[in-house]
Amino acid sequence: MKKYWQLIGIMGLVLLMAACGRQARSGYDNSINHGLDAVAENKFERALTYFDNALTQNPGDKKARIYRKQTQAYVDTQTQLKNGAVNQAVTTVTKGSALTGGAKSLTSKLKALKKTARADLTEYQQLDKQVTAQLAVTNGPYDDAIVKRCRTIDWQTKPYLKRLKPNVKKLLKRVDNQSSADNRQTDQRTTSTSHASKPALSASDHKKAAQIRAAIVQGDPDSWDQTSAAKVPDAALLAAERESAARGGDPSLIAKIVATQYPDLTKQTTSELDAAQAARIAVNYQARIEKNLGASVTAEAPTEDGDGGYEIRFNEDDGERWVTLDLRPNGGAFTRLGLSNRSVTETNWK
To answer: Domain coordinates of the chain in residue numbers?
Structure first.
């Protein structure tokens, strides 16, 4: 009888151990399957946790170890690309995609990421070479295609280029400074030529121009006041009167002719604003925006808003904030802070 009960006890222990083994195997299988499901959903951090659980239950399992190495390679590559370490990212993903005995889904994703990383590296190296060559240029001229490419870089969607950002910003600053200097020289030459070619006006001419100016302000007070009309040259007023006389002598026509020639001076201007002008205006606002944010920023290329105005986004160089500059064709300028869309300043760019 005693032997009978001993036999029963041994059989029970064997059954218990078998059940524990099945439970452990079931937990391992669940961890592997959940990990692969997470990979399919591109939730790689979660997949790492499941593969770690599988290794905890079966520390010597080669499959779980390889799965984990594949997943870690994918995560590390993404992090390196985000941090701008493009060469390192290509090395990491190349090693990861070369692992044997891994999951087919992970192998497929690593190969696709490897292709992306190599394309990112090619773009990085090309831009680095172009920008370096342009920075070696002294006093211009700069390559318009390269400058345009630099202005249109979306740093949010191309973080792998971020280590080139200081040089790109340096190049654009040089280009803008040269453009401003060229514009000043052109204005000076134009002014000198204009002054040299125009005959001097007599005292009676100036008196007549003053009368025309007063008539314009009185006849069209919605567009003109004494301050804005005073900025119109006497010669232009006299020329407008002669043109008006040639077209029938309507006094109100003088104001329209002058408004067409000097739209920026009217109180309600309808002057057009183009992308090049918007880009130059953005340069003038950048220092003000950096002062308000307390951080350096980089301007994106101006985009037309459909109403004759332009928007320029300034992205914080070492942060997530941005400011949008809204330029209106009538001279209004509004800066809005990030997602809040809150207007922080209202000025006039003219």
So the answer is: 24-195, 198-265, 275-348
